[in-house]
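**Reference record**
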Amino acid sequence: MRIVAFIRLVTFALLTMVAIVACQGDVNHLSRISSSSLPDRSDCRTIKHESGETKICGQPKKVVALGPYALEPLIALGIQPIGFADHIAFHKGDYTNPSYQIPYLGQRMAHSLVNVGLDSSPSIESILKLKPDLIVGLHQNNVAQYKTFSKIAPTVLINYGEPEANLRTIAKAVDRTKQAEQLLTETQQKIAFARETLAPLATTHSKVLLLSASELQTMTLEQSAAPCGALINTLGFQLLTLPGTENMNPEASPVLSLETLPDFNEADLIILLGSNFSDRLEDRNFEAHQLSKLKQAWETNAIAQSLEASKAGRVYFIPVYLCRGLPGALGTQLYLNELQKELLPAKNI
């Protein structure tokens, strides 16, 4: 019996030593993982955004942008996403030639992107394959998918209509806050310069009728609080409004019929924002595509041509995508360029 007890004691001691060695090995392994694979906790930050709070460590390298509202501020900050979901299905397949396949912003892309679907209903499978370390989307489009996205990668959802706040939020997420503040300052300087340049025209021809339409069957009257109207207002012009809409949502766009145009005959200038997105672009010029049908309809319509601004040659056509699709710094610069190009020639004044 003593021999049996002795053997049991020795066996227990050996097993205990093996267990200790094994546990020590696991601890060392976890320690190695912690030091080499896990992000430095001192480099982590919590991002407060429209849908909650997200912890991000380090600087994300593999970013997926869901929509042009997310892509624009990323590119403005020098971030080149690896995946993109457009707002409209302009293109099928991956973006192997983004300068032609992604309106305006594609010209700033240095490499191809994976097409992950539409921004409102992106392909989870496609996003998973990319193994991103940051997903940026729009709260209005992606709030229902937020929890799913967050299981794939840290996710930040911005809010449409708040370009400055969105830029700061995304800048914090990608650790480029200084660049964001510099960009905002430069944008304000460009707006101030444009306001000064357009001041003589705004003094003599201040009343502007700002409409968006694909053709002329349905038009919307852009308000001063909406993205397209806000900049016009900031530049010193007065946007005409529809009587009886004083208590209406200032960002809403009342729908007008062709027959109501004479009610706005006091307009000194008419700016028409072309919004033809009905046909697939293929390789056609995106800017001309938005405007062509609207220009033709306006030039051949008797009511439109009867307006004083039409008779005086003060009707201008600008792509609506610049202000609605790209409300941030890059879009603002493009919109400013178009406004100055259209409004400044003396022959139109």
